[in-house]
From TrEMBL:
InterPro entries: Biofilm_reg_signaling (IPR052155), EAL_dom (IPR001633), EAL_sf (IPR035919), GGDEF_dom (IPR000160), Nucleotide_cyclase (IPR029787), PAC (IPR001610), PAS (IPR000014), PAS-assoc_C (IPR000700). Residues 513-646 form the GGDEF domain. It comes from the Bacteria. The lineage of its organism: Bacteria, Pseudomonadati, Pseudomonadota, Betaproteobacteria, Burkholderiales. It comes from Rugamonas brunnea. Residues 655-910 form the EAL domain. PROSITE patterns: EAL (PS50883), GGDEF (PS50887), PAC (PS50113), PAS (PS50112). Coiled coil: none annotated. GO terms for molecular function: catalytic activity. It holds the Pfam family PAS_3. Residues 354-410 form the PAS domain. CDD domains: EAL, GGDEF, PAS. This is EAL domain-containing protein.
């Protein structure tokens, strides 16, 4: 058992240490997360706990108070050291500080002096470890002392600058700019580096107590942390996901990757070993503090910088060695030269390994990186990923300049930014641009450019880092195209039309002038769809769009709102004659035949016109008025244009009010059912009737069905009204079948909207008939030809459903349709109703008589019976009867009448028939003939 316990125990216990961060979890501390996740700390024998910070004083308090072994601090650690606090910097992570000043952008050129007299948040007023000193030194050097503006406590909330609570705010260039860009907030950024004030950013530090007690642990922790930073900077997306999964979701993935990209020029992982620090840079920082009166001039900071070679502070050790060498000159010189040789060898080996390591990172970096001569534009060094994105070889790139491979439209804007970079006015910039590959293809890249220190090269250089975002740009372009343009005609859609009309209105408000809006609706387009199919209908719409576009200027806008509705924006309209001319041109263009495969189609257009600012001053009313004018053009006979007038508005208002009144008409008992007899022409008997709805309005009196039925259809009330008509009709037909004729039928008109609905309404109808013990043959459903022309499965299924229930079907207004008669043999039709337009002009040997004869003969050949509508004279009745027409309907027989009156008519007919029968019976019988 003891042996098993020994085997289960770890080989060696890990040292538990704590790292205190200065802020909440974000990519700013990515290297430490990477070291923990990749096991670098565990390999170094360390069990590391990482604590999130609430303010930048947390690391100093925790490390010096013993709550943490290590911390992350800024350059103000130097102030703490010289104030007597035993802090030791182990390594520099950010070679350049991300601290900068953001000022709300104005219409003028960027000018730092705009902060004078304004409210500004620059660091914490109470936090000793803030970076405020860096910006205050920058402002002082630019001639802007702290007394010249009002400094307020920092909220660290970017919304305060966006909302205008302050005019300037200290920011991290790795953080707030992304927030401002997402909000669309215009701002200018000013960095102390433009004035030569170059502080270190984040630094890893510890205490003298930790260094003295655990020198090997310090060395191991530092080495593992720097390994973690090397990994994090080469695996940005992986670490961003790690932060989201294990540390914080305060920021989204896009922001974390923005941080990562912005940190590259600050950390400079390719050019500088992470952790490296230069004593001269710390001396520069000390001199800046001295200039602010925060440190004495030439202050000594011995022991502040950690020596990774042996874990001790190097200068103190070196002075002791040199002191001993001074006592023993000869021996000391020998030892001294020996140490120098060994140090040089060690330094050369370190440099060689560092160069190899960073060259490897440079070569394997997931983003394109190039070092470019800022004056000549020549490429000095390029990694493989940059070559891959640019689509060129190393030799081709070396022979090129950056503007040779850039899209011509992107060169001038970037040259302006390069001029500012070379003049030292900015430290870097970022942009999206296009690269041209040798094969002519275009690659979109997000580029970050930052100036680098290359004094030994003679010319200033800059580092260019690029990411291929072509797929993203193409997706954005596709989404934008789909959101703003009609996929069929490629015209602007409703959304883009509204946007362009809004811009045109703003221009008119600024410059004066007028706008004409044309609302175009194609006449008879539905018949093309119904007869030739939707594919040919689409072909017609595409050609119609092209014809309309050819009638206007390129500066005008033609849009498709949907279906067969188009709109045109005519800008700069000074007189109505030009609008008339364009509208007539559109009408003439659309009236020409459309070639659709082997067929030809003819359509016309109805155009409504409204003017800005004459008729309306906003988009909704302009469109509403144009729509009203278009309906006026349709009502005037189609193939014409009509201008909006206030009268149309009144008519539209009346339609709206009438529709509202219609909603309460059924419940209010305002609707009534009228019946018109259908007479058997051979016998003169009434065995059928057509049910017709009438509306008696409380104020308007009798409202014509031609007026309220279209309103019922457009509002959806036709469904409820149709059901009511059926219920009332079957009650009367039951009575009349019982009292007058056992095969009496009532015809019920059905709107196409009713017929095409898919709500199981016919099941309810059959339920009504069954409840009254009525057969299906007691009802005839009247439909129009248009329904049969759109011979889809829903229509076919409805007809089959009617046939199975025994309900008969009559085809109303026959002879006025658009298409062939092939549907007559395809569907089960029982009756054809000859339209009154044929009956009205019936005369012997007339063309209408010939057509009526043909319809009757054809119907009988197909087993159909014929009803003639609009019979008003005895001559018409006799001609139809002679031609073999089965039934007649019209004012000759009776006008539509209330149900009670129709019931009285049937009773009178029955009485007359009885009297005639009695007269026949009472007549004397003729004597038989004699032989």
């Amino acid at each position: 058992m003891a042996l098993l316990a020994l085997m289960a125990a770890p080989a060696s216990a890990l040292d538990a240490v704590t790292l205190q961060l200065k802020h909440h979890h974000q990519f700013q501390f990515a290297g430490y997360y990477a070291a923990l996740e990749q096991g670098y700390y565990r390999e170094a024998g360390l069990d590391v706990r990482i604590l999130e910070g609430s303010d930048s004083n947390d690391p100093e308090r925790a490390v010096l108070g013993g709550q943490a072994n290590y911390g992350v601090g800024g350059s103000s650690l130097l102030l703490a050291r010289l104030a007597g606090k035993p802090v030791v910097v182990l390594g520099v992570v950010f070679q350049h500080s991300p601290y900068a000043l953001a000022i709300r952008q104005s219409g003028s050129e960027p000018d730092l002096r705009r902060i004078i007299g304004k409210r500004a948040m620059i660091g914490s007023l109470t936090d000793e470890m803030s970076n405020a000193d860096e910006l205050l030194a920058y402002l002082k050097q630019e001639g802007i002392p702290a007394s010249s503006f009002q400094r307020v406590e920092h909220s660290f909330n970017p919304d305060d600058l966006v909302a205008g609570k302050v005019d300037a705010m200290s920011i991290y260039t790795t953080n707030e700019p992304d927030i401002f860009d997402r909000l669309g907030f215009p701002y200018d950024v000013y960095t102390p580096r433009t004035a030569g004030i170059d502080f270190y950013g984040d630094n890893l530090f510890t205490s003298e107590a930790e260094l003295a007690a655990h020198p090997q642990r310090v060395k191991a922790f530092r080495a593992a942390s720097m390994r973690g930073w090397q990994y994090a900077m080469s695996h940005q997306e992986e670490i961003a996901d790690l932060i989201l999964n294990k540390y914080s979701r305060r920021n989204d993935r896009q922001h974390l990757l923005y941080e990562a990209r912005q940190m590259v020029p600050l950390v400079q992982p390719v050019l500088v070993e992470i952790g490296y620090m230069n004593p001269e840079r710390w001396r520069h920082i000390a001199d800046v503090y001295a200039g602010l009166g925060m440190l004495p001039a030439h202050a000594s900071f011995d022991g502040f910088m950690y020596d990774p070679g042996n874990g001790r502070t190097p200068l103190r050790w070196l002075y002791r060695v040199l002191g001993a060498a001074a006592l023993l000159l000869v021996l000391g010189l020998a030892v001294h030269f020996s140490l120098l040789a060994r140090e040089r060898q060690r330094a050369e080996e370190t440099i060689r390994k560092g160069e190899l390591r960073f060259r490897t990172m440079f070569e394997r970096a997931p983003m394109g990186i190039a070092l470019i001569d800022s004056l000549t534009g020549r490429f000095s060094d390029i990694n493989p990923r940059y070559l891959e994105i640019a689509g060129r070889t190393q030799q081709e790139m070396v022979a090129s300049r950056w503007f040779d491979i850039s899209h011509p439209d992107d060169v001038v804007p970037e040259q302006l930014q390069m001029e500012q970079l070379n003049a030292g006015r900015i430290a870097g910039y970022k942009l999206s641009k296009r690269l041209l590959r040798p094969d002519g293809t275009v690659v979109w890249v997000d580029a970050s450019i930052v100036a680098v220190d290359t004094a030994d090269r003679g010319h200033p250089h800059h580092l260019c880092m690029i990411e291929d975002v072509t797929d993203k740009k193409e997706t954005e372009a596709l989404v934008w195209q789909q959101a703003n343009f009609d996929p069929l005609t490629q015209l602007p859609n409703r959304r883009m039309f509204h946007d362009r009309l809004a811009h045109a209105i703003l221009k008119c408000q600024r410059d004066g002038g007028r706008i004409a809006v044309l609302f175009i609706d194609l006449d008879h387009f539905k018949e093309v769809n119904d007869t030739l199919g939707h594919h040919q209908g689409d072909v017609l719409l595409v050609e119609a769009a092209q014809r309309i576009g050819a009638c206007v200027r390129k500066s005008d806008t033609v849009a498709r709102l949907g279906g067969d509705e188009f709109t045109v924006i005519l800008s700069g309209v000074d007189e109505g004659g030009r609008v008339d001319s364009i509208a007539q041109h559109v009408l003439d263009s659309l009236r020409a035949p459309f070639a659709l495969g082997e067929e030809q189609a003819f359509v016309s257009a109805s155009i409504g016109i409204t003017l800005y600012p004459d008729d309306a001053r906003d988009i909704d009313n302009l469109l509403k008025h144009a729509d009203q004018a278009m309906y006026a053009a349709k009502g005037g006979g189609r193939n014409r244009f009509s201008y909006f007038t206030p009268t149309l508005q009144v008519a539209a208002l009346n339609r709206m009010r009438l529709t509202n009144d219609l909603r309460g008409a059924l419940k209010g008992g305002q609707l009534a059912l009228y019946f018109q007899p259908i007479v058997h022409l051979r016998t003169g008997r009434i065995h059928k009737a057509e049910a017709l709805i009438r509306w008696t309005h409380p104020q308007r009196g009798m409202v014509s069905p031609l007026e309220f039925i279209p309103l019922a259809e457009s509002s959806g009330l036709i469904m409820e009204i149709g059901s009511w008509v059926l219920r009332e009709s079957v009650q009367w037909v039951r009575r009349w079948r019982r009292e007058h004729h056992p095969e009496f039928q009532v015809s019920v008109n059905q709107s196409p909207l009713e017929f095409q609905r898919d709500d199981g309404s016919y099941q309810a109808w059959l339920g009504e008939l069954q409840a009254l013990d009525l057969p299906g043959q007691s009802v005839v459903v009247e439909i129009t030809e248009g329904l049969l022309l759109d011979a889809n499965s829903a229509v076919s299924n409805k007809l089959l459903q009617l046939r199975d229930a025994g309900i008969q079907v009559a085809l109303d207004d026959f002879g006025t349709g658009y298409s062939s008669l092939s549907y007559l043999k395809k569907f089960d039709i029982d009756y054809l109703k000859i339209d009154r337009s044929f009956t009205r002009n019936l005369a012997p040997d007339s063309s209408d008589m010939a057509l009526s004869d043909a319809i009757i003969v054809m119907a009988h050949k197909l087993g159909l019976r014929v009803i003639a509508e609009g019979v008003e004279t005895a001559e018409q009745r006799d001609l139809l009867a002679a031609a073999g027409c089965d039934y007649g309907q019209g004012y000759l027989f009776a006008r539509p009448m209330p149900a009670e009156q129709f019931d009285a008519l049937l009773k009178a007919q029955a009485a007359q028939a009885a009297q005639a029968a009695q007269a026949v019976q009472a007549a004397p019988t003729a004597p038989a003939p004699t032989t």
